[in-house]
Amino acid sequence: MWGPSGNWRFYHNELNNLEKDIDRYAEDISRLKQDVYSDENVFDEEYLREKIRLENLIKNYEEALVDMADFRNEFDKLHAQHKELTRQRRRLPEHGFSTSDNKKLDALQKLVVDYLSEFGFSSFDPKLLNISKDSYLPTREGFDLGFDTSASDGIRVIWSYLISLFSLREIFQTNHPGILIFDEPRQQEANKLSFAGLLKGASQAPVAGQIIFATSEEEEKLKDALEGCKYTLRSFSPEEGKILRKLELVGSELIDGN
Questions:
Q1: How many independent structural domains does the chain possess?
Q2: What does R_g of the chain's alpha carbons equal in angstroms?
Q3: Residue span of the structural domain in which 115 resides
Q4: Residue 199: inside a domain
Q5: Burial code of 142-171, b = ≥16 C-beta within 10 A, e = fewer?
Q6: 138 vs 257, residue with greater confidence
Q7: Please, which pLDDT band fits residue 105 given cuts at 50, 70 and 90?
Q8: Phi, then psi, of 254 in degrees rounded to 5
Q9: pLDDT of 82-103, one tens digit each?
Q10: Is pLDDT above 90 for 133?
Q11: Span 33-81, pLDDT tens digits
């Protein structure tokens, strides 16, 4: 074994082992050279940039999702409001007037016609009068009554309309305050007959409210015109001055300013 042939085999095996070690070390050296001189650092930098870009993109998507949720909540509110408004609109009368509205206008027209007859209206037949559904004012064939009436009858229309509105509140629910004031109606080109009719018409109006007349007519004439009617009369002598007078505050008391 230790002869020439045995030594050769020993050295041959050792040589093979050394060659294998050399090959392995060469591979390691080659791999280390590749690591040292490779562009892996550049790859890491590109990877880092892409990672940051993706993180920003994800953040934008998340913010967009939050905004979309807010918009959805707002749209849901608007949708609910739209549904409610649509429901209320469907409840409105087709032509803008409910059955109750038409009944009110018809009742108002009848009251105005009745009062015009009582006040001596003569320009035309009061039954030709209509209440406009646009202005709610008295008209004839769609035109203002000022073109078809005299000055005195124009005053009668005003009286009739005002007292009719006052009276309507007892038949229907309205927004009338329940008070009506006439200031010197006798001076508005009205004759004694129509003025007496105005007083009687006002006295016969519903009691759920108050109608006040301020007039300089003689007291006896007023009593004659209101004979048989229910009313309250308050007289003021010329010495007392104006009925409505300015009040002044002196200390903690109100006193007459005249």
A1: 1
A2: 52
A3: 103-215
A4: yes
A5: eeebeebbeebbbbbbebbbbbbbbbbbee
A6: 138
A7: very high
A8: -90, 130
A9: 999 988 888 777 677 888 888 9
A10: no
A11: 665 555 555 456 666 777 788 888 888 888 888 888 888 899 999 999 9
pTM given for the model: 0.57
Predicted confidence (pLDDT) at residue 221 exceeds the cutoff of 70: yes
Per the CB < 8 A criterion, the answer to whether 118 and 200 are in contact is yes
Residue 76 lies in a domain: no
**Residue reference for tokens 């000022």:** 146
Query: How would you write the chain as a 3-class SS string?
Result: CCCHHHHHHHHHHHHHHHHHHHHHHHHHHHHHHHHHHCCHHHHHHHHHHHHHHHHHHHHHHHHHHHHHHHHHHHHHHHHHHHHHHHHHHHHCCCCCCCHHHHHHHHHHHHHHHHHHHHCCCCCCCHHHCEECCCCCCEEECCEEHHHCCCHHHHHHHHHHHHHHHHHHCCCCCCCCCCEEEEECHHHCCCCHHHHHHHHHHHHCCCCCCEEEEECCCCHHHHHHHCCCCCCCCCCCCHHHCCCCCCEEEECCEEEECC
Mean pLDDT, range 4-26, rounded to an integer:
63
What residue type is assigned to position 86 of the chain?
Answer: T
Q: Which residues of 193-204 are buried (b: 16+ CB within 10 A; e: fewer)?
A: ebbbbbbbbbbe
Question: Which pLDDT score, from 0 to 100, does residue 57 have?
Answer: 82
Do the domain assignments include residue 1? no
Position 191 scores a pLDDT of: 61
Q: Is residue 80 part of a domain?
A: no
- CATH number at 210 reads 3.40.50.300
pLDDT given for residue 110 in this prediction:
94
